[in-house]
Each structure stands twice: as C-alpha cells, then as structure tokens.
C-alpha cells in the first residue's frame, strides 16, 4: 500500500498539470502560440537549469555507476537499431516511418526522471541526473540519422555534432559536470534561491503546455499507428529493459532511472524535430500527446509493481 501511495504521488501531479493545461487551453487562457512559447521557455531555460542543478549537487565522485551508464548507453543504441528495422519493414511512407521510430525510441527522460526519482528518494537521486549526459546525445544522433536516412540524404557528422553540442540540455549537463567535478560552489542565493526555484518550474510548465495542446479529434485518424507507438514505447521497451537492469543488479533510484528512460512518453521536441526534418508533423504531435497522457498510468503500474517486489 505504501508503495502504491508513493507511485501515485510520483505520477499524479503530471496528470493534474496536464488536465489544468487542457482546461486552460479550452477556455483560451493558453492558446497554441502561448503553449509553444511556454515549451520554448521550458526546453531552452527551465529544463536545462533543472538538469544543471541536479548534476551540480549530485555525489558523482562517490556514486558514479559505470555498469548503469554502460547499460543505458548500449541499450539506447541497440533499441534504436531494432525499432528502426521493425518500423521500416512495415511502414513504407518515408514521412511516417522516422516519426514512429523516433516516438518509440526517444523518451522524455530529462523532463520526468528527476521529479519521479525525488518523489521516492528525496534529494538522493543517484545517477538520475548524470544519465542525461549519456541519453540526450544518443537519442538526438539516432533521430537525425533516422530522418536523414528516410530522405535518402547523407548525415553530416560535423553538422550533427555541432547541433548536439549546442543543444541546451547537453550544454547544461556538461556545465553541471564541470561545476561538480571541479568543486565550484555557487553562492546559495544563486544556487538555492534562484536556479533551484526556476528548475522546479520545468515539469509543471511543460505539462501545462502539453495539456493545452491536446487535440483528441485527430487521434482517430492515426489510431492504428498511435497504438503501435504506445505499446512499443510504454509497455514493450520497459518490459525488456527494466528486467535486464534487474538481472544486472540495478536497484532503487537507479532502476527508476532505467524505467523512465525506457518507458516515459515520447520527447516533446520530437514534434519540432519532425517539422524541421520533413516528417509527418501531425502524427508526431499526436504521439507526444497520447503517450504523455497514457504514460502516467503505465508508469504508475510499473512503479507499484517494482516497489511491491522490493526492487525500488
């Protein structure tokens, strides 16, 4: 029962924020333009600050988990290859196949991992924040390769590296590592009173924007493909990767990180990636919306089961 309450407390705020956003969207307090601006604020300022602060205060030197890092990096690459092969063997539309591959593979780890881990373990979130340094570059490389391959183009290594390095999430991760490992200490008035409070706004703001953008009228059109995306993203991947982590002895907060990395909703920036790289933007947007809503329930079930079995 205690585990179920912890799981509920971890995921219910996500649903509540989305429902508030949906309501605000319906009464026109959050229109499409405002929601888009809010998303830009989240992914260019608030979320990078959240990642920076979490890594900055983490005990990296005393608690770096090589096994977990390798497991996440290797499985992230392997699952992309498998997902791409399966999707492309069945979906011949070159504007849809990369969108589906990305939606199943590219999770919103950076947005959900820290708040869910903190709901269970408070400030002791282990490697949760540090894994963003590994996951973010890999999923962005995979997305770029997939869209370029679908267009029949060649991937420019230099352009891809430049884009990844300039990604605010990657930059904030590297700066957090630099500050942490070098022993730099920011004044409390900056770290605790400014950065941490702005960082705390990231998840609520993102969920509000997501909720405001829900358009259930388009879901019927994409029902079959959305079903494949949701089952692959929210059920099959965590059912494969979480037991694999357990077999390797990964437990507690680190196992929560694996669960969120494998089973959280499709990354919000999947939509902007699809738009900029010639993918089907309508499907991309619907995939983010539907997986965002359903992952609240699937994560609750996974967290409850793992907690009941004593793995977290």
Detailed description of the structure:
This protein is mainly alpha-helical and 312 residues long. It has one domain: Na+/H+ antiporter like fold, CATH 1.20.1530. The protein is 78% helix and 0% strand. Helix 1 (2-26) packs across helix 11 (202-212).
Unreliable residue runs: none
Helices, by number, come to 15
Radius of gyration in whole Å, from Cα? 18 Å
According to CATH, the fold-level topology is Na+/H+ antiporter like fold
Number of domains: 1
CATH architecture, please?
Up-down Bundle
Question: Into which percent range does the helicity of residues fall?
Answer: over 70%
- Please identify the top-level CATH class: Mainly Alpha
Strand tally is 0
Could you tell me how far the N terminus lies from the C terminus, measured between alpha carbons in angstroms? 14 Å
Structure classification: mainly alpha
Q: How can the largest sheet be summarized?
A: none
Give the helix/strand layout.
Blueprint: H1 2-26, H2 32-56, H3 60-63, H4 66-90, H5 97-105, H6 109-121, H7 131-151, H8 157-165, H9 168-182, H10 188-199, H11 202-212, H12 223-247, H13 252-263, H14 269-276, H15 281-308
Helix pairs in contact: 1-6, 1-11, 1-15, 2-9, 2-10, 2-11, 4-5, 4-7, 5-7, 5-12, 6-13, 7-8, 7-9, 12-13, 12-15, 13-15, 14-15
């Amino acid at each position: 029962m205690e585990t179920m309450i912890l799981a509920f407390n971890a995921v219910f705020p996500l649903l509540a924020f989305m429902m508030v956003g949906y309501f605000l969207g319906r009464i026109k307090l959050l229109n499409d333009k405002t929601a888009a601006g809010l998303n830009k604020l989240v992914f260019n300022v608030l979320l990078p600050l959240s990642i920076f602060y979490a890594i900055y205060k983490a005990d990296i030197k005393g608690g770096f988990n090589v096994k977990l890092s390798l497991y996440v990096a290797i499985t992230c690459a392997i699952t992309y290859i498998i997902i791409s092969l399966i999707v492309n063997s069945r979906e011949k539309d070159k504007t849809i196949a990369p969108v589906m591959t990305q939606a199943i593979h590219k999770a919103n780890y950076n947005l959900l991992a820290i708040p869910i881990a903190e709901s269970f373990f408070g400030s002791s979130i282990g490697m949760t924040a540090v894994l963003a340094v590994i996951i973010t570059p890999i999923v962005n490389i995979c997305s770029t390769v997939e869209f370029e391959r679908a267009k029949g183009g060649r991937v420019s290594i230099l352009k891809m590296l430049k884009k990844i390095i300039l990604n605010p999430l990657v930059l904030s991760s590297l700066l957090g590592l630099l500050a942490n490992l070098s022993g730099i200490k920011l004044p409390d008035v900056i770290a605790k009173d400014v950065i941490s409070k702005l960082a705390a706004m990231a998840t609520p703001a993102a969920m509000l924007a997501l909720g405001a953008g829900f358009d259930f009228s388009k879901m019927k059109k994409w029902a079959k493909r959305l079903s494949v995306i949701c089952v692959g993203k929210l059920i099959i991947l965590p059912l494969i990767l979480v037991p694999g982590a357990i077999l390797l002895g990964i437990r507690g907060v680190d196992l929560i990180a694996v669960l969120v990395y494998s089973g959280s909703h499709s990354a919000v920036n999947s939509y902007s990636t699809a738009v900029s790289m010639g993918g089907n933007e309508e499907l991309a947007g619907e995939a983010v919306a539907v997986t965002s809503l359903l992952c609240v329930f699937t994560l609750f079930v996974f967290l409850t089961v793992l907690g009941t079995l004593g793995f977290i």
